[in-house]
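I had to read the description of the data format several times before I understood it. Each protein is reduced to its one-letter sequence and a matching series of backbone shape codes. The format is easy to grasp once an entry is in front of the reader. For illustration, here is how one protein appears when written out as sequence plus structure tokens:
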Amino acid sequence: MRAQAGSGDPHSTVEWRQSRFSSSGEQPDSRAKAPDQENCFDRLCDALLGSIFERALWKPCLLQHQARDRVRLEAVCKRFQEVVRVTGCLEWDLDNGPQTEQNFVRYALGSRCKGLLRKVVLKAERPLALMGVLQAVLPHLVNTLQEFYLVLDFSEEDAQSIDWGRILVMLQECKHLVALHIFLWESGWHRPAVVLDSSKLPKPFLKLRDLSLFGFAAPSTGIQSFFQSFPSLENVELHQLEGHDYVQSSSSSLKSAVLWGRMIYGLDGLVVPRSLRVVAGLLDSESSGVREKALEMLADLSHDGKPEKPVNEAIANAPGCLQKLVNLLGVQREYEQKEALMILDNLAEHWHNRMAIVTCPGSLQQLLSLFKSNCEDTRGTAASALGSLAQHPEACVVAIQLVPAILQGLVDLLDDEDRAMQSIALQALVHFANDYDNSAFIVALSGGLAKLVSLLQSGSAELATGAADCLQRLAKYDTAEAVARAPGCLEGLVNLLGSSSTHTREKAAWALTTLAELDESAQRIPLVPGFWHKLVECLDPSIGDDATWSEYLQEDAVSLLANVGSEIGVMEAIASIPGSLHVIVNVLDSWMVPSVRSAVWILLEMVRGDMQTRKALAELPGVLQKLEGIVDYEDFEDVHVEAAELLEMLR
């Protein structure tokens, strides 16, 4: 019975188990199949089953447990054993336990693999072990080997001690080799560990199409001869030596070339190099040391890789990379969590990555959970990442649809003791507030408006500016009335019109201008003490610490003045400020119809009954031409009548 059970036949195994149970009085396992029940694998032909096994066993960029899985599949039954052999793929860690090298050589050259291996992945940490294995195995693979991968965790010194020319010569004997990938962990992205000597290649790799040598550079002399050794090359990845044009010296058959170094060439966002796939594949390694090293490499590439945009897009496009980074946000190991978060924050700064991150399962929930971290850096980085994601309009909407609690989390951070944290949360809220539905959510949140209004009087120009910016965006929609009625809101914004920061004044003026589109607010704003004095000063061209923001501020002030009307003496006060007429005339060049309409209205109010102001305005260079342009321009149809009236008065 025992011999029959070990024969590999699933049916005989079931019969043996049932006879054992009946003789002992035990109940058979409910999972055991009846003798006449069909084995589902019998429905699959060997070719289809082999294709399934190959997909499971050949994942050279993941480097997980394919060798273990292969042995387990072989142990199921004789048929599985035969089908696994035919797949021809094998991955092995040469440092996974004692006598691993001997076990690999014995297995690779034994009856289960002999004459069938087409694809091989080897991981090694010791140069001597690697050389011995290659010398023993490669001569037996010259007629079958098609793809060969080496992932090497050597020091730079050990890597330089290896006779790479000898290894390449051995690989040249493999007649059908089409893909060769060697990855040196310790090299990093920016400089090579080994410079190859192409003179040691006695003959070309005739069929090699895919070459990845991470950590290796072609020689500074003889680059041309190096590429001549690969006449069929289509895809290449290696490090470059400074000042050498590798692509121009390469084969004309090349479809893609990625060159690592201080400046990385060949990445366009869509190209994901083999080395990057390997690093991404190691993010979920069972070894914490391997995970940390992979995270450090990705963090270095994301932060320092140039050019920045294609580098970070390539990282995000690496298969499984985003999901693995998101998964690491939930681990208990603080170092891994922080590194993964920092990488995601860097990736989120780039437009094309944002929707992919938002729709990555669990990403938003994990970022939100980090708002409650005891570490200020972690809370700030999580809020920063969400703020970047919110800059993508579609991603912003999807994010709140998936996890509405994000907004409450950001509002809660406005109470944080760290002002930098408050500022980051504010910027994120500003982006989320651009959406109509999100603005309603923010206003409805407990304490949302009250916290924003309190920050107007925080004493920090940065926080006050951010709060005014957020309130302006909330005031664009149906929530405007709630914003205007929030206790202290109008007073706080008017107070900021007198800020020493032009940027802060502009944001306050913009928010007040938006709120003044409501009749009730337009009546209440001028009643705030000091409003007229501060508003008139905004039109003084001599006041301001930033030319760009001064221009925006002046345009906002003109629009605000038109929205709230004016009391007696205001127009005269504005006209008395040297250069104020010129400021208002410049607004006539705005592409925004409301701003142009406001400027025309103010100028009309100033010149009616005041011949001195009318004369001064008419003498300003270009004013008549600007008004004529407004009258003739169809987009300013709503202003034609007022502009024509003003033009007639000035002629």
Summary: Residues 547-564 form the longest helix (18 residues). Residues 1-32 have pLDDT under 50 and may be disordered.
